[in-house]
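// run 5 | inverse folding | seed 20
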């Protein structure tokens, strides 16, 4: 990064891991190293080395914009402008995802029309319970409909055999 080489060290106290970046020449720790390394990698992947970064943050859980479909955590989210974000996994140096305005619209429609997450948006935590109850009742209704159809077919067949 910036003409300097760093070691990426993982320190563990048994419960949690901490990632540190140590300069290979001076042996000093780079403050905020994970965010800086994520920004550096995002600039390389995007070919925007001179473009200003609008925001960067550490993500250790999935969000509406960075979903479970991407399968990599933790990642650094780096934004260059309002319509494009890069998600970089610093432990491996891989680009996990790139979101733009088209991707955001696709995620919104998938999340709300297919996964029915609008319940959570409207009602908060209660929305998840209502959503699951709605799905169970819908599934039971479809099962009842299928069983009714099978029963009607069986009765019609029994009458035809007599």
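// decoded
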């Amino acid at each position: 990064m910036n003409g300097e080489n760093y070691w990426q060290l993982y320190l563990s106290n048994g419960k949690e891991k901490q990632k540190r970046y140590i300069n290979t020449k001076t042996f000093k720790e780079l403050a905020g190293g994970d965010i800086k390394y994520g920004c550096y990698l995002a600039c390389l992947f995007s070919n925007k080395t001179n473009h200003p970064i609008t925001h960067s943050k550490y993500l250790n859980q999935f969000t509406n914009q960075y979903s479970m479909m991407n399968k990599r955590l933790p990642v650094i989210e780096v934004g260059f402008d309002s319509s494009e974000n890069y998600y970089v996994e610093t432990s491996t140096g891989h680009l996990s995802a790139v979101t733009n305005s088209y991707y955001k619209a696709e995620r919104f429609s998938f999340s709300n029309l297919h996964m029915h997450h609008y319940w959570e948006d409207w009602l908060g935590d209660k929305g998840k319970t209502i959503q699951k109850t709605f799905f169970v009742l819908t599934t039971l209704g479809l099962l009842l409909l299928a069983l009714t159809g099978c029963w009607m077919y069986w009765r019609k067949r029994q009458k035809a055999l007599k």
